[in-house]
Every structure is written in structure tokens, then in C-alpha cells.
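Practice problem: predict the structure.
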Amino acid sequence: MEKTEKIWQTSQKRFDYGKKTLVMAILNVTPDSFSDGGKFFSMDEALRQAEKMIEEGADILDIGGESTRPNSARVSEEEEIRRTSPVIEAIRQRFDIAVSIDTSKAKVAENAVNSGAEIINDVSGLRFDEEIGKVAAKHRTGLVLMHLRGTFETMHEKQESADICAEVSDGFCWSIEKARSFGITDETIALDIGIGFSKTFEQNLEILANLQKICAEFSSFPVLVGVSRKSFIGKILDNAPTEKRLSGTLAANAVSVWNGANIIRVHDVRENIEILKTVEAIKRHSV
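Answer:
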């Protein structure tokens, strides 16, 4: 199956996600993230992990300084900047890699971009701090808009929904229009379906099973899926702990890419790139 050019524009790069699925590698410089909290909290550890992920083939490094796991507490802007900006600057000095800042605070995003980040990954889709839209427009960064419901404190509360896919669609439409109101252009926007955020176990599965419909509706935008090591996979695998969820992650990502995902956000780069090569090789022969 021949792919046409599809461009996601950041402040520094043009990613053709029509040619290949992009891999966004997770690098949390936090003491308490659900899977890798504390592992890469020092500068040396963060740089070693960054180098490993780059060597394994990551397209983007997504740097996070505030955990969004269930029951996590907010950290101050100053602390989040202290954790992330020096790491971003050091990575950009050493490696030729696109860097994303995973934050929902405009001040943190501004400092990250000034340190070398070219993408802002906002889990709130401009709901928590819409000033992020001004930062993205000013610097012409890439902008990931994720779907969720509620506040930072309530975003993991499970809510019933008559049609969760329709809710995701409505949420995307709201975030896109909000971004456009700041002068952000469509080619800089990517959409994250928000697996694990304000969704029940069944709703997560329903979204992934019907991802093709969402991708078709928003075909002008790259769609990002972040399932890596998440709790719904643990539940499927008989309550497996985070370190035992790789096989489930790979399966979910394979299904997601087959159903149209353009970007996958992962902890385990090498293994996911191997499944991407396999899925894409098969997909090229679909009729």
C-alpha cells in the first residue's frame, strides 16, 4: 500500500509520518512516575538513557518532569523547570534528536523550548493552561493535544460514557479550535487519544478497537497512541506489574498501528521498532 506524504511540522523538523510510524521515547526525569520513576532522575542517568533510546532508533525524546500517574501530586513550575530544562539542553548539545516537553504548564513549556525542545506534549489538550497555545504559536513548535476529562486531580477518575469514541472526537475538535484561536497551524498539531486518562478499562479497549474511525475522521493530523506499560495491560495480563507488561504493550501497539496510529509513545524502543517493521511490512501488502 503506497503512502502519500504526510507532514508533521515542528519548529525544527518536518516529520513525514506517511512514510513510517514515528517512535516517541519516554524519558521521565521524575522520582515518582508509574513505570520508570527515579531511574533517570540524575543528569548522567538521563543522558545514558537518552543515548540508548537514540541508538535504538527513537525519532523523538519526550522529557517529563511531573508524574501524571494516578494519585500523583502537582509539582511547582520552578521544580518542573529545574528537572527538565537542563536535561533538554544537555541532550540537544550532545545528540541530533527532536525533543518534546511533556507538560501542561506554559511557563515550563517556554523554558523547555528555550532550552531546545521543538514539541510541546500537553496531556490536557490546552484545558489546564491554555497559555501553552501562546507558547506553541510564538515558537511554532509541534503541539500534541491529548484527550482527557476533568482536572489534574480528577483526570484518572473513571466516567461512564454512552459513546467514548464520540467523546474523544468532540474533545479533539475543542482542542483543535482552541489551538487555532492562538494562530497555531494544523500541520504542527498531533492528536493523542489519551489511553488511561479518565477512561474505564472497557473504554480503553473500545478506543483501540475502533481507532481506525478516529484516524479517518482526523486524517489531516497524526494520531498518537500511548499504551506503554499502562494499567489496562496489566489487568489483561492477570494483574502483571509494570515490568511484566512489554508483551501486552507490543500487541496493543501492533493493533494501533494496523488501525492507523502514526506515532507511538513507548518506554522500550528497540522492541517496539521491531514490531513496527513487521506490522508495516505486512500492511504494505494489504489491498
